[in-house]
């Protein structure tokens, strides 16, 4: 029986197959679309699937109930960097690799971060609103330049480093970074960033952008205490994970004028519910976007191509790349108890 690829992504099955077939010398395989299936139907589809293409809209969670019959499944490939809708622990227990597409949207997120910082400094939202309402506020907006400012990066992985490199032409006074792993002096010079303890970074920076993963250690890492540390003239940008920020605390800081503004692309609940406190704090000093920092035509192409190529590897009997769970360790642990 030929292998089955179950696609949960909102893409035509024919397109998914064509993308996978860009890799040469594949065995014959079938692509089945899971769109519109009930959970019971999905469970049955998982029982026949050799590989699963995840849903990049995060609307189809992959939970333990779908994995109960997944006896031939060799890979769950998520076509995005984030994979929070997948029960990775349940996959690990069943020795099912879960892979994502790291780095595919790095440029898009980095450019969005800079766009947010420049827009906040230049007061573009207020300028646009004033023009639409018939005001000519040429001398009252008081926009600022990025040159000479201190930009703080919380998290210095691929995206944090990409932002740091893109800041160079703007001649900031300093680029600070905080990460649990400090770079070598040579690497810091390469990326033009200086290590700073977290609270020092929060108090010294004119712009703070978040690029950290969501873990128990980073959940709500920005709350009242951290926002109080920031300069009244400073801005906060969150393009990482919504749960890094206490949204109630940020709304209070904005309404009370304790920081100059913020740009938020990610939220604790998505799509954004009407009761989110940031909507009540929304003004010209708050830029909200619907989780689009990593979205671009170019990034989408890279993501889906990486995902399809990784599925092709598994269909050819090769080990998948970009695996986020340690299925080998789980296998060893289970063998030790047999």
TrEMBL record:
<comment type="similarity">
    <text>Belongs to the D-isomer specific 2-hydroxyacid dehydrogenase family.</text>
</comment>
<dbReference type="GO" id="GO:0016618">
    <property type="term" value="F:hydroxypyruvate reductase [NAD(P)H] activity"/>
</dbReference>
<keyword id="KW-0560">Oxidoreductase</keyword>
<dbReference type="InterPro" id="IPR006140">
    <property type="entry name" value="D-isomer_DH_NAD-bd"/>
</dbReference>
<dbReference type="InterPro" id="IPR029753">
    <property type="entry name" value="D-isomer_DH_CS"/>
</dbReference>
<dbReference type="GO" id="GO:0006564">
    <property type="term" value="P:L-serine biosynthetic process"/>
</dbReference>
<protein>
    <submittedName>
        <fullName>Glyoxylate reductase</fullName>
        <ecNumber>1.1.1.26</ecNumber>
    </submittedName>
</protein>
<dbReference type="GO" id="GO:0005829">
    <property type="term" value="C:cytosol"/>
</dbReference>
<dbReference type="GO" id="GO:0004617">
    <property type="term" value="F:phosphoglycerate dehydrogenase activity"/>
</dbReference>
<dbReference type="Pfam" id="PF02826">
    <property type="entry name" value="2-Hacid_dh_C"/>
</dbReference>
<keyword id="KW-0520">NAD</keyword>
<dbReference type="GO" id="GO:0047545">
    <property type="term" value="F:(S)-2-hydroxyglutarate dehydrogenase activity"/>
</dbReference>
<dbReference type="InterPro" id="IPR006139">
    <property type="entry name" value="D-isomer_2_OHA_DH_cat_dom"/>
</dbReference>
<dbReference type="InterPro" id="IPR036291">
    <property type="entry name" value="NAD(P)-bd_dom_sf"/>
</dbReference>
<feature type="domain" description="D-isomer specific 2-hydroxyacid dehydrogenase NAD-binding">
    <location>
        <begin position="117"/>
        <end position="293"/>
    </location>
</feature>
<dbReference type="GO" id="GO:0030267">
    <property type="term" value="F:glyoxylate reductase (NADPH) activity"/>
</dbReference>
<dbReference type="InterPro" id="IPR050223">
    <property type="entry name" value="D-isomer_2-hydroxyacid_DH"/>
</dbReference>
<dbReference type="Pfam" id="PF00389">
    <property type="entry name" value="2-Hacid_dh"/>
</dbReference>
<dbReference type="GO" id="GO:0051287">
    <property type="term" value="F:NAD binding"/>
</dbReference>
<feature type="domain" description="D-isomer specific 2-hydroxyacid dehydrogenase catalytic">
    <location>
        <begin position="24"/>
        <end position="325"/>
    </location>
</feature>
<dbReference type="GO" id="GO:0047964">
    <property type="term" value="F:glyoxylate reductase (NADH) activity"/>
</dbReference>
């Amino acid at each position: 029986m030929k292998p089955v690829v179950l696609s949960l992504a909102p893409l035509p099955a024919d397109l998914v197959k064509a993308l996978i077939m860009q890799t040469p010398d594949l065995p014959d395989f079938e692509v089945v679309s899971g769109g519109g299936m009930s959970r019971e139907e999905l469970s049955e589809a998982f029982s026949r699937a050799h590989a699963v293409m995840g849903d990049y809209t995060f609307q189809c969670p992959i939970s333990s109930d779908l994995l109960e019959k997944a006896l031939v499944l060799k890979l769950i490939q998520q076509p995005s960097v984030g994979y929070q809708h997948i029960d990775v622990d349940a996959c690990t227990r069943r020795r099912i690799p879960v892979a994502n597409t790291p780095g595919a949207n790095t440029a898009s997120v980095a450019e969005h971060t800079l766009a947010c910082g420049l827009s906040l400094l230049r007061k573009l939202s207020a300028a646009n609103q004033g023009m639409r309402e018939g005001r000519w506020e040429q001398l009252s907006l008081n926009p600022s330049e990025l040159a000479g400012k201190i930009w703080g990066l919380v998290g210095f992985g691929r995206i944090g480093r990409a932002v740091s490199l893109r800041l160079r032409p703007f001649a900031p006074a300093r680029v600070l970074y905080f990460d649990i792993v400090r770079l070598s002096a040579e690497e810091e010079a390469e990326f033009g960033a200086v290590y700073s303890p977290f609270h020092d970074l929060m108090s010294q920076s004119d712009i703070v952008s978040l690029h950290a993963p969501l873990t128990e250690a980073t959940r709500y890492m920005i709350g009242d205490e951290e926002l109080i540390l920031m300069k009244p003239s400073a801005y906060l940008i969150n393009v990482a994970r919504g749960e890094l920020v206490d949204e109630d605390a940020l709304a209070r800081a904005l309404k009370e004028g304790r920081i100059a503004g913020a740009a938020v692309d990610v939220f604790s609940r998505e799509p954004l519910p009407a009761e989110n406190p940031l909507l009540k704090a929304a003004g010209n000093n708050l830029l909200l976007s619907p989780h689009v920092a990593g979205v671009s035509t170019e990034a989408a192409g890279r993501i889906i191509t990486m995902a399809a190529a990784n599925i092709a590897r598994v269909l050819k009997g090769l080990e998948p790349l970009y695996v986020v769970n340690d299925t080998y360790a789980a296998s060893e642990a289970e063998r030790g108890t047999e």
